[in-house]
Amino acid sequence: MPRSERSPLLLAGLLAAAGVAHFASPRKFDETIPEALPGKPRTWTYASGAAELALAAGIALPRTRKPAALAAAAFFVGVFPANVKMAVDWRHRPTPQKAAAIGRLPLQLPLVLWARSVARNGEGR
Question: How far apart are CA 72 and CA 55, in angstroms?
């Protein structure tokens, strides 16, 4: 299978794994929910996990790949504030944890670009 054909499936797999993690270990995600959001953090954790699972399913299916990948790009932008909150909250933690939290910030851009590439290459399939 050529790389371009695997790319959507890899992105779908990443989103599915992240979605499952939101349900399997919600507490760590609850801590990243910005306090400015209304409601309980757990609700946002489960909602974002469900969204990731839905996006994964949409990207896995060629017929819905383009809109799902564009939605995934928007999702990656939308969760960026949670990653910023995590980096701020973890600034006093041990160096490996602090580095992981800060390292997540620049990873959002490649995720957005990857999702857009999947959407662009998903046209006409």
Answer: 6
CB atoms within 10 A of CB 22: 22
pTM: 0.88
Nearest C-alpha neighbor of 76 from the set 31, 18, 23: 18
Tokens 């995590």 locate to 86
User: How long is the chain?
Assistant: 125
Instruction: For 39-60, give the DSSP string.
Output: S-HHHHHHHHHHHHHHHHHHHH
- 50-99 tens-digit pLDDT: 999 999 999 999 999 999 999 999 999 999 999 999 999 989 999 999 99
User: What is the spatial distance between Cα 9 and Cα 7, in angstroms, rounded to a whole number?
Assistant: 5
Could you tell me the two tokens for 62?
A: 């060629």
Residue ranges of domains in the chain: 3-121
DSSP-assigned letter for residue 123: T
d(CA 66, CA 116) in angstroms, rounded, equals 9
